[in-house]
Amino acid sequence: MLGSGAKATKPSFVSYISPEEIHIKEPVEKEVNLHLLPGELLLCEANTVYKYIQEDGSNRGTCGKLVCTNFKIAFLNDDSASDDNDPQFKNKIVGENDITLQCVDQIYGVYDEKKKLLTGQLKKYPEKLIIYCKDLRVFNFCLRYTKEEEVKRIVSGIVHHSQTPKLLKRLFLFSYASAAPNNTEGRNETVMFDTFEDWRDELERTKGHVKYKVVTTNEGYRVSEKLPLYFVVPICVSEESIVKYEGRGIPIWCFSCHNGAALLKMSTFPKEQDDSTSQMQKAFLDGIYKTISKPPYELLKTEDLSSSLPSLQDIQTAYTKFKQLFLIDNSTDFWATDVKWFSLLESTNWLEIIRRVLKKAIEVAEYLERQHTNVLLIEESATDLCCVISSLVQVMMDSYSRTKLGFQSLIQKEWVIGGHRFLDRCNHLHKSDKEEAPVFLLLLNCVWQLVQQYPPAFEFTETYLTVLSDSLYVPIFSTFFFNTQHQRDTSTSGEILQSQSSPFRFLTVWDWSVQFDCKAQAFLNNPIYAEKPKPDKTQRKNTRFKHQRQLSLPLTQAKSSTKRGFFREETDHLIKNILGKRIGKFINSSDEPPNSFREFYDSWHSKPVDYHGLLLPRIDGPEIKVWAQRYLRWIPEAQIQGGGTIATATKILDLIEEVKSLQVKMDEKHSQAISGDVHSVPMLRSSARLSSLFPFALLQRQSIKPALPTSTWKDLEDEDDLVKRDDEFVDLSGDI
């Protein structure tokens, strides 16, 4: 008899049954049907496949069928057909045992207990298959009991369809769009920025229409296929210059601050140019700078992000090292890495990159907010780090960007229409690993730092950010599967789909009803969001910029009139000009006090937080943390029952429910209707039964080792009584 706590005794017989056969459930006769989406085709399948659940060094699992379609890899077993234990947070497109082909990161085969990376044509087929996913799930399949022909078909099929280079038109995105019903009834309130009116309205919203204009020069993509159809430039920029230089060297508007200062971005000219062309381009740039920078009233600060921030290659290298810490095969590997967790985490440099990016965003916000200075972000293509910094600055300075609709519109404007190369950066087509870099994921990590530091300032939750990161790999939405607006438009109505008999429209990821029902969508809304109060119309003139904390943050503790300080700065610049001190096109860092940033940063953090004003992240030391929900959600050892943020959220939701109940009673008593919009909240009564990483991870199992700090575990490793404890867990994410 096998006992979990009994000492091993000398066997009196020889067993010819493997450990896997002892623990794995017997195959079931019940047929489980594969649910196929419109346009989804079954490519290959294998029966009698065992999916392992790695538990405390022993192999446990269930028997089922492994299938591969043109959309996903799926494991089907008896549990797949049961709806009795459906989680509260369920994705309608991608199930618990589904892996979209774009979500597959690496595939390993196990040969005689040795792992080997599987690529291309295989000469020998493995007895075990390990699939590492981009959302950090790890699947272990045993093929030892599967028919040899089925093993060949399923392994070859999975490797071929998920790892080999493919053409754009071979993405499931097109199969789904051509087969799915053209349902446009769903209302999408997100501003898509694909029309002239969208850009005009955004200019008016930010009061930028006085100095900037929407141009139609690129209609029909006659100037450049890399530029969007419509974009915003300074009024002084002529359409002729845009056409002449194909959009390069043109300052493109991103955002206007309440005080009139603007954030712009610009792509650079090609480096390889002859002398005459270079001189002509230099003269053109000088003219551009002079039109934006008009001392003493308007100044321009340029930020070359290529030299001040890590390169895309550095970002990719850091993230590759970082994600390895969370691709855990089993409990043994988890505890092995736990011994040197902090040194491993530091060596990845991922958190340091996040800190540097946030610091740069704060520096840009300082120029805009305190110094009333236009900022021009410069990058080779202006579609990578420019997108990150411009988005972060707007999240920090514009409270509208901290609402769900505002944030989605921001992503559309700066990333989707702005020309971020999602197809290349996510390597969806497996064309070139050199182009791959988690730039958008870097933004989400930075925004998460703000969300977890200032929860009431955001209408959305960290769960929203997590499912948004997962949606990068769901190829039924066009949002993250094109490089440019031109590529998207030509794919919809151009050469790729000439054979299409009826027109269709790609789905957008912003229609969350496609992935989640109403109950699940409630987890995306923040119940403690401090909604912006509606302004009093009688005092509109006096509260024009009420949503901002203040017009200008002084460098010193001395309190002075904001208006007076604003004009004093202008006067100082004017005096410098009169005295003959030339104010050039650039404000060099040497012209600024060396502690300007620190004083701005400390001054802001010394005051109470206005959740609808300027928001600066804390970036010192341990303030930059690991996004626990995203990176630890599949690791049971990192979970605690009834603890973590979910325990706090449950109490808050209970209070909200109680307040709503009291409000109903009061309204009934006075025969009044309930007024105002109230977020629907999910019912989470028994927090003690939930995982700290809910809603993605329910309580599945516990590790045989208690989740204690490494030093404590090392000291108490031999104490059986501690090993057997079930209720004394410490949230590992708190130390991260």
Automatic annotation (TrEMBL):
Keywords noted in UniProt: Cytoplasm, Sarcoplasmic reticulum
Protein's UniProt name: Myotubularin-related protein 12
Superkingdom in the source lineage: Eukaryota
Predominant cellular place of this UniProt entry's protein: cytoplasm
Pfam families: 3-PAP, Myotub-related
InterPro entries the record matches: MTMR12-like_C (IPR022587), MTMR12_PTP (IPR030576), Myotubularin (IPR030564), Myotubularin-like_Pase_dom (IPR010569), PH-like_dom_sf (IPR011993), Prot-tyrosine_phosphatase-like (IPR029021)
Domain Myotubularin phosphatase: 193-631
Annotated compartments: Cytoplasm, Myofibril, Sarcomere; Sarcoplasmic reticulum
GO CC terms in record: membrane; sarcomere; sarcoplasmic reticulum
Sequence similarity: Belongs to the protein-tyrosine phosphatase family. Non-receptor class myotubularin subfamily.
Gene3D superfamilies reported in the protein's UniProt record: Pleckstrin-homology domain (PH domain)/Phosphotyrosine-binding domain (PTB)
CDD domains linked: PTP-MTMR12 (cd14594)
BP GO annotations: phosphatidylinositol dephosphorylation
